[in-house]
Amino acid sequence: MSFSQLSHLECGRCGAEHDSERPQNLCVKCGSPLLARYDLDAVRSSVDPAQIAGRAPDLWRYHELLPVRNPESVTTLGEGMTPLLPLARYGERIGLPQLMIKDEGLIPTGSFKARGAAVGVSRAAELGVERLAMPTNGNAGAAWSLYGARAGLAATVVMPLDAPEITRRECVASGTDLHLVDGLISDAGRIVGELVAASDGRVFDASTLKEPYRIEGKKTMGIEIAEQLGWRMPDVILYPTGGGVGLIGIHKAMNELRELGWISGPPPRLVAVQAEGCAPIVRAFEQGESESRYWADSRTVAFGINVPKPIGDFLILRALAETSGTAITVSDAELLAELRDVAAMEGMFVCPEGAAAFAAARKLRASGWIGADERVVVLNTGAGIKYPGTVPVDAPVLPVDGHLV
């Protein structure tokens, strides 16, 4: 039995095939992201959900649908199989009694970026890459730095100056070559692009969707949701959308699982959640466009979704269209209020991006777009403790001999 049933890479826009056995970035014909394709007939004949149930509880349990050829090439910190938990009190409060959270804050490095890093780093090392470079809003750079260190790869990371401080420290601790830029992730991306172009092939560009395997790690969120629900899908999945890799990946996973015959019925309606201060996908969706336009002067406290022009915008919008989904904005005030409500009612300190998705769930229920009887999953993409500044502390200070009574 083959560890991976990877067949080839395919351009997500023009369909051109590319060799999966050497490092690849964007399509050589049209410059669009590449997607990994698998021999699904071979997957179907070699494994079924019952066999998967007996495997180790990490994302590598789905190895036939992942791109790493050799199990010895796997770089892992135990990522995957994060809990899918009901939120009964909070869900009742907002009119969604079947609300659930997929909590990625419990994964290694404290964010769902560990999924993409685990698979992307493993495949890069397998293909002979020695140095990675990437721009980041924080968590992706931290994850790729730490997984790169575990795989023995060098890394260069460029992040905005106001990215979360903890993610900088993760990069430094791992020995990464870290640089800060007084600008946005798009400015960091330009700097990384110049470095890669001048490296004569010595540095591999691991930017979001400029390499084809990060999405494969992210798609395991969708496979896990299906497995955790008994190989059924929820009615709605809300996803905080910056680069949108996870949303694209979940959509890809659903298509693969349906073709395998492991799930059936209509797909869950996907929701792209953005901040009012950076909403290129929402604007494109509302105007019926197939691509987004650059969002000038973007800003939001949900730093992970502050992406003014995602490279995979056409794939995000396609996923929304094919699932009868939608795109919605929330304000920073709304998401910060929701962060407090979820913590107070459920004991879960979610990240600001996850809080944005909860605020969106509340708004979509209030508008009637989500029905009261629907099963809804919100993706919390990271641990709230990585963003300590989102909750100011104004507690009284007691003297050492003080009393509360």
UniProtKB/TrEMBL annotation:
Domain of life: Bacteria
Keyword Lyase: yes
Known cofactor(s): pyridoxal 5'-phosphate
One Gene Ontology term of the molecular function aspect: pyridoxal phosphate binding
BP terms from Gene Ontology: isoleucine biosynthetic process; L-serine catabolic process; L-threonine catabolic process
Keywords: Lyase, Pyridoxal phosphate
Pfam families recorded: PALP
InterPro entries in UniProt: Ser/Thr_Dehydratase (IPR050147), Ser/Thr_deHydtase_PyrdxlP-BS (IPR000634), TrpB-like_PALP (IPR001926), TrpB-like_PALP_sf (IPR036052)
Residue ranges of domain Tryptophan synthase beta chain-like PALP in the record: 76-382
PANTHER family tied to this protein: L-THREONINE DEHYDRATASE CATABOLIC TDCB, THREONINE DEHYDRATASE, MITOCHONDRIAL-RELATED
UniProt name for this protein: Threonine synthase
Lineage: Bacteria, Bacillati, Actinomycetota, Actinomycetes, Streptosporangiales
